Amino acid sequence: MGKIEYPFWVSGHQPEYCGHPAFKLDCEEGEGHYAVIEIMSQRYKVPKIDYGSQILKIVTVKNAFPTNPLVCPESTVMYSILFEYNSSVRKVAFTLTYNCSANGHHPEYSYNFSCKIGDQDHEAYLTTNTSWAYELKNRCEYGEVIGDFPVLEWELQGLKGSSDDQVGKVLREGFEVRWRADDELCQKCFLSGGTMLLLSRQTLSDNMFIK
Question: I need a surface site. Which of 127, 150, 152, 205 has the fewest CB within 10 A?
Answer without folding.
Answer: 205
